[in-house]
Amino acid sequence: MRKLVVFLLMVMTVVISACSQTNSTNNDNSKENDNFILVTGGPIVNTTSNYYGEETISDFYIGKYEVTQKEWVEVMGDNPSYFIGDNLPVEMVSWYDAIEYSNKRSISEGLEPYYNIESDKVDPDNISEYDPIKWIVTINEDANGYRLPTEAEWEYAASGGQLSENFTYSGSDTADDVSWYWRNAGDEYLTGDWHWPILEDNNNKTKEVGSKEANELGLFDMSGNVREWCWDWYEDAEIPSGSFRVVKGGGWIGDVSNNEISFRGKFEASGYGPDQGFRLARNR
Questions:
Q1: What is the mean pLDDT of the chain?
Q2: Model pLDDT, residue 5
Q3: 16 lies in some domain
Q4: What is the percentage of the chain residues whose pLDDT exceeds 70?
Q5: CA dist 151 → 29, 116, 232, 236, 264 (Å)
């Protein structure tokens, strides 16, 4: 009898241990992927995309939300944003800031940094007259660290990937369902023509991430709230040089047309503003 009891206790210990390990594994995976969506690759099927019929995208992860101020402060230690709030998107960040954050967050989480940053050299491919920084930034293509999405990846994810319903905006044909822009980002819904004093008087500003409807993949704010940096030069994807980097999605200051998936914005890499943020991607 005593041997039987000992045996049963051993069996129970093994079962409990196995369950604990399984739960631990699930929790670890859940923790890692809670705020990231796996985007299954394939051809771009949304006909409004600039890359429709031209690009086939590989699997990748992308942030469910724009990078928040809480996430930024945890890594960088300060908060550059004009509008302050843990769950508001970080803004007032340049392309270089987003690159630096990507590497620092990767290192803090034990991932291999995606970018090589040579801040003491001048990038000969950056032909901007006004960018005083011009770091040389190259990539470690197979690294598992955080990075900015390419413009094609951004459009693919914003349009719902293989689940795309061919919407004009990310998740809807009605901008107000999914995006914050100049008409709806303040105290009252604005009509008439755009004028900056009207936006100021209306207390227009960024909104907490995820407070509008998601798109087909469960991604939020890919139309509106803050404009999002992409990796690419604006001028020509085939020529790795230019004056501007691509920004996508539009922001709370801009017109609704800027929120369209196909809209191509541009900004000097050193530029920043209260409607300029980003979201992260990762290789699968």
A1: 90
A2: 37
A3: no
A4: 88
A5: 27, 20, 6, 11, 9
**In this structure, are residues 182 and 194 in contact, taking their beta carbons and an 8 Å threshold?**
yes
Per-residue model confidence (pLDDT) at position 33: 57
DSSP code per residue over 169-202: BTTBSSHHHH---TTTSSSS---SS--HHHHHHT
3-state class (DSSP) for residue 257: helix
Q: Which domain holds residue 253?
A: 34-283
DSSP H helical ranges for 34-87 = 69-76
For residue range 160-172, list pLDDT tens digits in order: 999 999 999 999 9
Determine the Cα–Cα distance for residues 8 and 16; give it in Å rounded to an integer.
Answer: 12
Q: Quick check: pTM over 0.70?
A: yes
Among 135, 232, 216, smallest CA distance to 169 is for 216
pLDDT in tens, 225-241: 999 999 999 997 677 78
In a domain, 247, yes or no: yes
- pLDDT under 70: residue ranges of the chain: 1-33, 237
Cβ of 270: how many Cβ atoms within 10 Å?
18
Q: State the angle between helix axes of 69-76 and 95-108 in degrees (0 to 180), rounded to the nearest 10.
A: 70
**Count of structural domains within the chain:** 1
Can you say how many angstroms the Cα of residue 241 is from the centroid of all Cα atoms in its chain?
23
Instruction: Give the CATH number, domain containing residue 111.
Output: 3.90.1580.10
